[in-house]
């Protein structure tokens, strides 16, 4: 081994040893507290609406100054993870569900994309001669098909779907199991949509919708009315009710 090679090897070894001897950098204390809180929110230990430990408890647990704990909680509040109520404490913020109104998406796919579980409760699956429904579908004579379904994310109701369907386009609609496949997915699978129209309202739901969304009397909803076409025929007319406190609508053009 020549001298230059030996020197190079020695220098490389010294650099490795020097790096090992250097203490590992740790996150600032406030950041450690943020990670602690986030971990428990994300793994479900602390659920939306749950109170988290007080600042006094966190100060003792982490052995830091109160201002350090306050900074961590303040930043998590600004990030929408927590909500702080004067005189009551700090709570895990409710989940804020988001959908788009500029593209027709399957709600089960939206929920799956968030890493959550979709379930559905079928409240009604029947025929109907409702005059307004026939007019909306452009059908001269009934009956048409009618379904009412509550869509849930991790067991929490986030959408009440009240749908009328053109039986000429989907004659087997009433035979489907909509706890397994959503109406949206079923219809798009059979007949791709050519066009759609939307209207969005802020409305107070009736007692039936309010009960199945599990919301308080007086809480408003965002209600989307939507019609979709297959060819020249209206395929479906649907009202989608969302509790305002748990859902908002967004889109990009």
UniProtKB/TrEMBL annotation:
Protein source organism: Paraburkholderia eburnea
Q: Read off the InterPro entries from this record.
A: Bact_HTH_transcr_reg, Chorismate_lyase_/UTRA_dom_sf, His_ut_repres, Tscrpt_reg_HTH_GntR, UTRA, WH-like_DNA-bd_sf, WH_DNA-bd_sf
Domain HTH gntR-type intervals: 27-95
Mention any Pfam family matching this sequence. UTRA
Asked if Transferase is a keyword of the record, the answer is no
Which keywords appear in this protein's UniProt record, sorted alphabetically?
DNA-binding, Transcription, Transcription regulation
Protein's name in the database: Histidine utilization repressor
Q: SMART domains under this entry?
A: HTH_GNTR (SM00345), UTRA (SM00866)
GO annotation, biological process: L-histidine metabolic process; negative regulation of DNA-templated transcription
What is the taxonomic lineage of the source species? Bacteria, Pseudomonadati, Pseudomonadota, Betaproteobacteria, Burkholderiales
């Amino acid at each position: 081994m020549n001298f230059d090679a030996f020197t190079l090897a020695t220098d490389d070894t010294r650099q490795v040893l020097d790096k090992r001897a250097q203490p590992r950098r740790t996150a600032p204390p406030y950041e450690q507290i943020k990670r602690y809180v986030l971990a428990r929110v994300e793994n479900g230990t602390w659920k939306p609406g749950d109170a988290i430990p007080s600042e006094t408890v966190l100060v003792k647990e982490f052995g830091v100054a109160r201002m350090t704990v306050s900074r961590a909680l303040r930043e998590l509040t600004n990030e929408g993870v927590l909500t702080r109520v004067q005189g009551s404490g700090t709570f895990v913020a409710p989940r804020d569900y988001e959908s788009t109104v500029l593209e027709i998406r399957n709600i089960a796919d939206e929920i799956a994309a968030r890493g959550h579980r979709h379930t559905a409760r079928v409240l009604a699956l029947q025929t109907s001669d409702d005059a307004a429904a026939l007019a909306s579908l452009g059908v001269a004579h009934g009956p048409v098909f009618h379904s009412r379904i509550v869509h849930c994310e991790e067991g929490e109701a986030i959408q009440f779907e009240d749908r009328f369907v053109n039986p000429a386009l989907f004659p087997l609609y009433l035979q489907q199991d909509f706890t397994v496949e959503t109406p949206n997915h079923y219809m798009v699978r059979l007949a791709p949509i050519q066009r759609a129209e939307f209207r969005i309202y802020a409305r107070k739901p009736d007692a039936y919708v309010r009960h199945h969304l599990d919301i308080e009397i007086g809480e408003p909803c965002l209600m989307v009315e939507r019609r979709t076409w297959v060819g020249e025929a209206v395929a479906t007319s649907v009202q989608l009710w969302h509790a305002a406190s748990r859902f908002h609508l967004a889109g990009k053009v």
